[in-house]
Design goal:
Its main location: membrane. It is found in: Membrane. It comes from Ilex paraguariensis (yerba mate). InterPro entries: TBL, TBL_C, TBL_N. This protein is α/β, with parallel strands linked by helices. The chain has a single domain, classed as Rossmann fold, CATH 3.40.50. About 30% of the residues lie in helices and about 15% in strands. The strands form three sheets. The chain has a seven-stranded mixed β-sheet, with helices on both faces. A four-stranded mixed β-sheet has the order 8-9-11-12. The chain is globular and about 70 Å long. It starts with a helix and ends with a helix.
């Protein structure tokens, strides 16, 4: 009996052992299969339904702008949502105002079409795509001026192409000294772009053989910037336009143009050099102070003026002249945004938030200007620059593909505008 029980116990042990081995084998096989599947998935391109939504985080300068914006909603706090149902862009790649280097669809950029399928969704409200026909009707007999550098032209062209798609009768001209402008004849609505890099007048300066204040400080050449005189390209714009959108910033941190040693910015006020000499950031503060005052003194009481915040660049691995590139095909994640733009990291693209600090400070308390905050929403869009499709010798990670991100800027602009202006 004992032997029988021992045999039964031994048989049971063998059975349990066999079962455990079988179970472990199945578990190992399942683990290997799962690992292989995950590895294969990681190598496969994402399907449209696999696109991530990218939550935003407040920028380090958010608290500075409190009181500047009059919007009932903080449009800058939101996320990019991928919408695979978008079948076509807002306007065709054949729109003639699109600069060749920005025409990413025409240049066959690999994600040229995908760029327009991302929609910005504020967390506490909605930002609808504006209706161009409704806009033309609501703002007939209105003049709109974009004043600033090539990034404001980027935005101007996006608006023109959207409107041109629904209203083709236009007159091309240069109102109030503009670089370019168009009137939509059926609605008598004019939009114009006034090119200016610094807002203030500037030009080459060379030392005088007879000496002077700057010569005594051993300056031989540089750029004279008159902080209290607007550049002639836009000086008449405030009295001509009913709506104005200003920007400045990119040229203030441009050592390839304003080399601090070989060709520094030399600031003048009331015709006299500012001494001791000051760095560009202090010069920017002076220019903003004077230009804001200039605009406020020359606009009509019902004129609406916006100042657009800085458009972010997305150079990685160096600046534009150091082999920097922007290879992303999807928007960045929040942690990637902070890595690129945090003031603490002081990286290649820190310019955007630095400029905004000066803008928020200068515009606080302004009775005329409203802030058009496009910076944080745009910080995610490393995928939306022309990159190598721009046709330049270097990657263009500063301007934006058209159609693209600047179309969302116009949605934001018009959403703000509708809050301020009673349509005609």
């Amino acid at each position: 009996m004992a032997a029988k029980e021992h045999h039964h116990s031994k048989k049971t042990t063998y059975s349990l052992s066999s079962f455990c081995c079988l179970f472990l084998s199945i578990l190992c096989f399942a683990s290997l299969f799962l690992a292989f599947s995950l590895f294969k998935t990681s190598l496969s391109p994402p399907r449209p339904d696999q696109h991530r939504n990218f939550e935003s985080e407040r920028s380090e300068t958010a608290e500075i702008k409190n009181g500047v914006s009059n919007s009932p909603c903080d449009y800058s706090d939101g996320k990019w949502i991928y919408d695979p149902t978008v079948r076509s862009p807002r306007y065709d790649k054949a729109c003639k105002e699109i600069y060749r280097g920005w025409n990413c669809i025409g240049s066959n950029k690999s994600n040229g079409i995908d760029i327009v399928k991302w929609r910005w969704k504020p967390n506490h409200c909605d930002l609808p795509q504006f209706d161009p026909l409704r806009f033309l009707e609501d703002y007939r007999d209105t003049n709109i001026g974009f004043v600033g550098d090539s990034l404001n032209r980027n935005m101007f062209v996006a608006l023109f192409c959207t409107l041109k798609r629904v209203s083709s009768e236009v007159r091309k001209w240069r109102p109030a000294g503009a670089d370019r402008g168009f009137t939509f004849l059926q609605y008598n609505l004019t939009i114009a772009y006034h090119r200016t890099n610094l807002l203030a007048r500037y030009g080459r300066w060379s030392a005088n053989a007879n000496g002077g204040v700057l010569e005594s400080l051993r300056y031989k050449e540089g750029y004279r910037v008159d902080v209290d005189i607007p550049e002639g390209t836009w000086a008449e714009a405030p009295s001509f336009h009913d709506i104005l959108i200003f920007n400045t910033g990119h040229w203030w941190w441009a050592p390839s143009k304003f080399d601090p040693v070989k060709s520094p910015m030399l600031f003048f006020e009331k015709g006299q050099p500012v001494v001791p000499t000051i760095p560009p950031d202090a010069g920017l503060d002076m220019v903003l102070k004077h230009m804001i005052s200039f605009v406020e003194g020359r606009t009509q009481p019902n004129t609406i003026a916006f100042f657009r915040t800085q458009s972010p660049r997305h150079f990685e691995g160096g600046d534009w002249d150091q082999g920097g590139s922007c290879p992303h095909l999807q928007p960045l994640l929040p942690q990637e945004v902070e890595e690129l733009f945090s003031l603490k990291n002081n990286g290649t693209n820190v310019e955007a938030r630095l400029v905004n600090q000066h803008l928020f400070k200068a515009l606080k308390g302004s009775s005329r200007f409203h802030m058009l905050d496009i910076t944080h929403m745009s910080e995610f869009r490393a995928d939306a620059h022309p990159s190598t499709a721009g046709g330049k010798k270097h990657d263009d990670c500063m301007h934006w593909c058209l159609p693209g991100t600047t179309d969302t800027w116009n949605d934001l602009f018009i959403a703000h505008l509708n809050n301020f202006k009673v349509p005609n």
